[in-house]
Amino acid sequence: MKTANHLKRFFLIGALAVAIVAGSFSSSSAFLDKTRFVAHLGIAYFCFHHWVWRPYQAGAFAPGAPHRLSTTVKGGVALLFAVHEVQVAKKIADQSPDPLLRKLDGGLASLTDSFGTIGQKLKSGHFDPNDINVLNGAANAVSSQAAANGTTIKDVPVAVPGA
Which 8-state DSSP code applies to residue 160? Predict the structure, then answer.
């Protein structure tokens, strides 16, 4: 019995070592491109929807709203985190040979710019409701384009550092 467990452990360690060595020689840019792309965009969408869009719809950014400043700062931090996730997704799309990701790459540039610009505004305490509507439109456009090509982007709940 002990010999069988030792043999299994030895085999598992050997397989892991082979996988690590083989992984270092092969290109990782094509490994699960769509999955990684959708996961990063899903995290970005969650940050936007949970920390910006829902509070905006609830009136939490309006003048006189309770905890408006903290809500605005949290929204700004969430958007900066979302910008990072969109940039990672864009990098995956840039390096991928997949035609769908190449097609979506163009929409990500404007989404990245929108997230970054509005994130900086919110973090500094400036709020313009039109910015949030424009950003939601850009996010929906990328999501619709992905869905039309067979890839659904869903919110992926994640804790935002600092929020």
Answer: P
